[in-house]
Amino acid sequence: MEYGAKESSDSYLAEYDKLVSRYKNIESKCNSIIETNEKRRIQNIEITKFIDEIKKLDTPPIEFDEILFHHLISKIVITKDGYAIFHIKNVTSIRLEI
């Protein structure tokens, strides 16, 4: 009878360990989704701010506007294959052939 109880206990612990591992995996995925959602929320705020700044202008900027450029672009990467990648602050990037 003791052997059966030990076997049952081992089986229980093995199942418990599987469930703990599964829980940690799901928790990690959940935290990743929460982090992604937070980044998207921040991006939405940044895009909204940018759109509001554009709406405040009487006319759309036709000439180069250094202030607007610095407000919008975080960096530019020139690639060997002839492209310029403009990284927009907290949002995305635009790839243009040069």
Could you give the topology of this structure?
Layout: H1 2-56, H2 66-72, E1 73-78, E2 83-88, E3 93-97
Antiparallel strand pairs: 1-2, 2-3
Give your account of this protein's structure:
- The chain is α+β, with helices and mostly antiparallel strands and 98 residues long.
- The chain contains two helices and three strands.
- It has helices at 2-56, 66-72; strands spanning 73-78, 83-88, 93-97.
- The protein is elongated, with a radius of gyration of 26 Å.
- The termini are far apart.
Keywords, separated by commas or semicolons:
single chain, three-stranded antiparallel β-sheet, 98 residues, elongated, alpha+beta, 3 strands, 2 helices
Specify the structural class: alpha+beta
Number of strands: 3
Q: Report the uncertain regions.
A: none
Largest sheet: 3 strands, antiparallel
Shape: elongated
Mean pLDDT: 83
Query: What is the helical fraction, as a range of percent?
Result: 55-70%
Strand order of the largest sheet: 1-2-3
How big a fraction of the residues is strand? 15-25%
The N- and C-terminal alpha carbons lie at a distance of 80 Å
Total helices: the number is 2
Order of helices and strands: HHEEE
Oligomer: single chain
The rounded Rg comes to 26 Å
